[in-house]
Amino acid sequence: MRAIHAAFLLLGLAACVEQPQSWTREDQARYTTRQFRGHSSAQIIAAAEKVLRLADPKDVKFEYESDGFLARRSVLAYYVIAAATGNYIFDFSVKGSTAELKIYSNISGVGPYTTIDTGGNTVPGIATTPGQQSLSQSAAEYDLFFSRLSYLLGESETWVGCNDVKTAYGLPRGRFEAMCLNADDNTP
Fold first, then answer.
1. Which of 16, 23, 36, 47 has minimal CB crowding within 10 Å?
2. Element (H or E) spanning 8, and its range?
């Protein structure tokens, strides 16, 4: 009887868990682009580069293009019994007064595992989970980048630091990994 009650309790709790919304074409256009009227393309690009250099100056590398840049931010994170390493990729471009950013992550995990050899003995080891490049679908992550860009362009009076994201967005810091995971998080 307890098992039945436990099963119903788990089903009830599972129904309460918010299911993630699917990312639509409209969502992508809304979250990854912003208008910055009254600024030249060069000003917008320079400010966007500064956003990333302030976030993590020693771990971000740039490849410049005529209409923007491709920046790679390397990260290495240690957890109690695991680690993760990889890159966040910021593909930034400007067309007229429209700035577009796409954030990609390619993170690999390393952690302990146990296997059984042919003699039936358990053998501890370390497993690597390969990363796969994927587009960030976190609206808040794009909002953080663009709010900092607005600040550097003089359109906002508030710089939101990584320690302030929970207050500013009502979300935990972990939702802003591309900008905040092991970042220096300097302010202008």
1. 16
2. helix 2-16
